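Researcher: Predict the fold of Aminopeptidase N.
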Amino acid sequence: MSDLATPNVIRRADYAPPAFLIDTVALEFDLAPERTIVKSTLRVRRNPAAAHASHLELMGEQLEFVGASLDGQPLANVRAHEHGLTVENVPDAFELTLTGACNPAANTTLSGLYVSSGNFFTQCEAEGFRRITWFLDRPDVMATYTVTLRADKAAYPVLLSNGNLVDTGDLPDGRHFARWEDPFRKPSYLFALVAGKLVALEERITTGSGREKLLQVWVEPHDLDKTRHAMDSLIHAIHWDEKRFGLELDLDRFMIVAVSDFNMGAMENKGLNIFNTKYVLANPETATDTDFANIEAVVGHEYFHNWTGNRVTCRDWFQLSLKEGLTVFRDQEFSADMSGGDQDEAARATKRIEDVRVLRQMQFAEDAGPMAHPVRPESYVEINNFYTMTVYEKGSEVVRMYQTLFGRDGFRKGMDLYFARHDGQAVTCDDFRHALADANGRDLAQFERWYSQAGTPRVSVTTSYDEAQRRYVVTVAQGYGDASPAARETQKGPLLIPFAIGLIGPDGADLPLRLEGEADAHGTTRVLEVTGALQTFTFVDVPVKPLPSLLRNFSAPVIVEYDYSNDELAFLLAHDSDPFNRWEAGQRLATRELLTLATRAAEGRPLELDDAVVDAFRRVLTDETLSPSFRELALMLPSETYLAEQMAESDPAAVHAARQFVRRRLAHALKADWLAVYERHVTPGEYEATPVAAGHRALKNLALSYLAELDDPADAVRLATAQYDAANNMTDRSAALSALLGAAASTGGDFVQRPLQDFYERFEKEPLVIDKWFALQATQRGGAGRPVIDTVRALMAHPAFNLKNPNRARSLVFSFCGANPAQFHAADGSGYAFWAEQVLALDALNPQVAARLARMLELWRRFTPKLREQMHAALKQVAAGVKSRDVREIVEKALA
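Model: Structure tokens for Aminopeptidase N follow.
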């Protein structure tokens, strides 16, 4: 590999079509853990759209060359080297056969072909296929594949690959084979194979056109009882895509396979999706409500890729959001429809709130740091580092804006045209934009800037009301504020921002909206198209001075600046008809108070909370007209990470002190209400993984977490202990254990030790549950003289911990570094020293996972001077010892 060399920067502007194309691929695998032999036969021809090249250059990494032939004759003019293989003086069209070997058992990177729990798996996106065989490993080279797998039948009774199974049989010496054909052209990153001792849950369904399809969820035998929800989610996704977008499953079968060693959540390989077990396995005893929801979303996401990613794929990796942003949008819409259908806007809003919380906490932070990049990046060193929140989550918001501008019907028209034009092709983000524009008769040239400009836009709003003229003027200015240097380099001009607005009268009712120049009022929510740096919109026939409800349903991924008073925010929290903005008002109110308190805490001044804030929380808590799931989200304070990022100089200790003060204040002031809510929202009887039941559990367990903040948490300990002992589901059991850990942090009590030990012993053979056990301890608050870093270091030596497994590493190391800011950012720098150790340890095993961990210090310049100095030292330590280009790109950008 080239990891030790100084890597070249790859630029979008340098794209050139491949000199050769590959029409068909025939792969033969003789599978053995230490030495798998791979024979590939390629039908190659010159690309008439590319510059002439006399030599064929193929990519390859960590491969042993065995032999080659061209048009059936042994090939002498072939040279295998560190980065691939060169065939000199090739004709215009030819058949090339290459034989090589790889070592799956030694592949700890989990990229390419590797062994996990004695079974074979592959992960080829983005550049893993070149670790299997030499190839033009780029997404714009699309071919049809025939794959023959051969292996020991007793050790590997199941042999799977993409497409349709066309032949099987026994071979001498106890071996057997399976042959698969995929009739659809695909790039190499969508290739997959699986071999091992697996069993399947099977279902047959009939699609809208009357075709029967076989669905399979493959797992290790002891996990078969945890596959029903994944299968149901797949069936729902197939039917939803037919109904919403007219897209039907095209293969005779569709397979999902679960593996415990996997760098990502899942992979959409054509017809053979390989999943992290975390997003497949679920039953009430082992999976939380969040797990059930995530499985539904990820199964949907990977299935939806069958069209948005597989049938139409990306020309190059700069276009990654073409498939990922679009498919995230599709899975978000799917989840919203599963929870609320087309009509239940409150239920849909709950999903919207959850998605925006993730965007603002993680993607906005990315926009503010050294890794800031546009949705369509202009350059990269290591493509694995660009599977980012910007590409996925901001990319999905860009797609959502098309639907906001054109409506569901207009968006569907654009999607239909996109597939009509580009089915079977590798295309660009511009091709998608042109399809939406042409289908709706619009010029979207300005909208292109959403793909090419980095940073989070800021929209500043001022208003004025002329009572005599009954005119309400809204002035909107857009810009980027204090954007990071990485973002500023990309910013060229104003964006087209769909800005949804409503006006609320003093009685709390929405006013009908009529813009100047219109004959009549149209609705109570209007989408204003903001296209200039400064723009004015005038509403007429406004009978009273209204309060604006801005950016309804979060109609664009921007930060809104408007000078609401606390009373106005409380009014919106009580009355706004837009559920998202109702939640947003509460979050703004809480954020404002928490940041004021954090400043006081940093200065050593006493902390006080306005009674009006407590009253606002009480109104939400006791309002039975609001759904439990909405109340749970509205009563959840902004995270410490998000709050620290809002400070001019991030001070995690001060933020933690402020947030804990507010939680304790709300716990004491609303104790009777928390207790009443807890009792009212118990869900007796058999567990149901429905959005309604999950909402009741979420609100009940939030109440329990607040009660655990009391100075005397006896009630919380009693309730949590009883809940833990009686729980018939993982949601309630883990929430009870979390509450006990919280109460123990305040009191130093040992009442948490018995359930903590019981939890481990009860689920010792369930890896995903033990991940939760590690994560609960890594994210606990800690107490005086009991830093959590000591617990984490002790757990690193636990027999169940294994740094090589990405899920286990994430459960302990990532949870501590990323989800426990007050403890990670300890004043003594112990958290940073731990971070540096683990980044370097992971870098030697799995650079992709190491790079994810490395990013946790990229905003180091925004912290207080002492923390900044210690983070800088930790980054320098990693920079001095790193070996992979994955991690090197991250730390060098952070230090630059």
